[in-house]
Structure formats: C-alpha cells, structure tokens
Please model this.
Amino acid sequence: MPDLLVHPVSTPLHGSVPVPGDKSIAHRAILLGGLASGVSRVEGGSMGEDNLSTLAALRAMGVGVTEEPGGGLVIDGAGLHGLVAPRGPIDCGNSGTTMRLLSGVLAAQRFKTILIGDASLSRRPMNRVAKPLRLRGAHIEGKADPKRIGEITAPLEVGPLPQPHVLASLEYELPVASAQVKSAILLSGLYADGPTYVNEPLVSRDHTERMLSALGVPIRAVGAMVELDATAWSGALPAFTIRVPGDLSAAAFLLVAAQIVPGSRVDVRRVGLNPTRTGILDVIRAMGGQIDAVALGDELGEPVGDVHAAASALIGGRIGGEIVPRSIDEIPIACALAARARGETTIFDAAELRVKESDRLATMARVLRAFGVGVEERDDGLVIQGVPDRPLTAADVTSDGDHRIAMTAVVLALLGDGPSRVRDAGCIATSFPRFVGTMRALGARIEVIEGEGAA
Ligand code: S3P
Model:
C-alpha cells in the first residue's frame, strides 16, 4: 500500500473540481439496474472500489455489464427473478454496503450464496441484517464473533430460501439508525408476499426509498417509518438511466480543507444534496464556516447542486442527535474542522463509528493526538480541543486501512509544521480514487511514495 508525503500548504487552496459519483447512490443504481427488466445506464464519473465490488457481484450472478470509455455502465438487467447462482463466494471487498444490501436480495433467492470480505469487513457486525431477514423466513448464517456474544460476522451464507420459497411480511424496529440494514429489509420486501414496515430511531439516508419510488415501487415514508407493499406492485422494475450525482461524502474532505486552510475558496460541482446526507454542511455552518449550496435540479429523485466553500474562523460546537446519521461518514473529517476551531467540540451519540471500516473513534483520537491536538475518547464520541492559531505538529500516521481516516489525515497534514507521512493510503481508492490528483489541482503538495495506487 502506498504512503503519502503531505507538505504543509504555502498558498490557499483554490479551484472548482468534480468528485466521484455518490457511492451510496451508485451501489443502489447498480443493484437495481441488475434486477430491472431491460437495459439501464449508470453514468457519473469514476467509481471507487466499493462500487466495483457490487458490480462484480452482479456479474457473478449472470448480469451483463458493459463499461463505456467515459466510465458509464450499461447494465443488462436480469429481472427481479433472473439472478443465477454464482460459481463461488462473492467477495464484497471492503464494502459493508455491498454485503448488507446484497443480503436483502439474496435472502429471497432459491440458491445459496457465500459472501466474504476483506479483513476489515470480516470484523463488522452482521447480525443486524441477519436478524430481520430471518424473521421473514430467510436462511442466513455467519461466523460466531468471538469478541461479541450473539454477534456474527462474514463469511455469510445467504439462502436458499426455504419452503414455501417466499418471504413473509415484516414489521421491524431498527435498534440503531442504519441505511444499509433498512435497505436490505426494503430490498427483501420486493420479494415478499406481504407488506414491509421498517422504523428507525432517527432517519438515515433514504436513497433506496427514493430510487424505488422513482421506479414505480409502492413505497412511502412517514417520518422515520417506511412502508413498502410489493403485493400492490407489478413485480417488475423498469430499466432506467441515471447520472449519479457527485459524492458529498467525498466532497466533504475538500470543503473542510477549504475551511481550515486560510484564504481558500473551493467549489465542488454537481454533488448530491439529499437532506439525509447534508449534515456536514450544517455542521460547518454551525461552527461558523462559510458554505453555500446552489440547487441545480434532480436526478432520479435525488437533489443535485454546486457547493461553494471559503476559509473561515471556526468555533467549536456540539455534534450529536439527528445530525449523526446525516453526517455519519463525515464525522472523521468534522474532527479536522474541530481541530482548527476555537474552543472545544463535543461529538456524541456516535458509537456507530466504532463498527465502520475501522473503529473511527479510536483511530481519529490516535490521529488527532499525533498532530498535537488534545482529544478525549468517550464511549460514544470525542471531545476535541481546537488549535486555531498555530501550526499542527507534523505527524507520521497510519490509516488502519480506512479510506476516510487516510483522507482526514491528509487534510490535517496541510497545516503541519513540516511534511507529514500518511501510511497505508491505498485504501483511499475505496471511495475517492482521484483524491490526491484533486487535492493537487487545488494547490496541495502531496507525494506518493512506495509505489502507485492512491493518486
Ligand atoms: C451507507 C450507509 C451508512 C454509511 C455507509 C454507506 C449506505 O452505513 O456509513 O458508508 O450506502 O447505505 P449505516 O447504514 O450502517 O450507518
């Protein structure tokens, strides 16, 4: 895995840049394109490795996919009931979304599938998805987790669906807000002989709901409750075309870098502005940051717009409650904001971060300390003491294989008192393959060392 040598900035960051297509929306577009009847097109820029895992999974189950030179995908859908048994285990790589969303679809199949993942994904909890799927009649088993009693992890064995070969209706209360689990349940609901109701303690991202609704599936949301009734539906997903909006979660690294590098102005073009994802914009504003979003329109039910950010004097704040699921993947980079804000920032209600690609509360605490930032780690969050007026301490840190930790460390390193090294940075390609090139285009000086891969 390559390392990155990040030099402190000598000039403000400046420019207008695109970001990769939204990872969450692309997962759903690929999956639903594979289940649609007819040929769908998924366009929208470079995809990271996580999306490629979903694509490879569908190919392994007989879906025809052609990649076009501009990065677009032409997906020849197999139809809702047209997937075929894969020849071997399906490797979901680092992607929890691939494993959990696929589980919902595979639960309804008459064949067995084994889902495997990399070391990080193989540690992540899977009972949260197995439990509701079993309640509606699915067969799903995992490996007993030696560290957490009652928990299972990958490899997962999903299906075949036992007699009578149809999933039952389900009413399910999620203990923790999770779009991945909610989506798995809703996708399994497409195959059920009765309605599906899912309720979350707080609203998580609703891309699955929006896309299914745009494709004519009877689905509606009231607050945090979602209802899908496949018995009131034709049973076929129409083919579609989508230009996937840019990923606000990728843009967040650039937008926060623009806030904390003095004098910077950065515009990110055509990103998704779904309100279940824009928590980071609210966090930046609440901490005194200048950020504007200009709506451009809609793409298969998803709002899209340009976002403009300018360097600001920041003040510490509190990040908890409903904002947490709306910014769940941006909390690491929000820590960089907190590191440069005047005063203290408290992040709470965020225990879910412990079961992401790494234990992000522990990894962020370690990274912040390495850059000379005071931080207290709590069970459900962090308390960060901002260092607004002097350079951070140049650091030598590792990402622990977590793409969002690696990118956060790069952003912090821009303000170091010398060059910093970010080890194990190849994982950035999981979600933002052109991150280094994009940062360079904005004016950052970053060298890739020990081989290629992250640029
Ligand atoms: C995702 C949902 C979130 C998020 C992940 C992508 C999705 O996970 O952290 O990166 O696409 O549904 P949870 O739903 O488990 O919180």
Q: What stands out?
A: The pocket of shikimate-3-phosphate is lined by residues 24, 27, 97, 178-180, 183, 204-205, 328-329, 352 (CB under 6 Å). The CA atoms of residues 64 and 378 lie 47 Å apart.
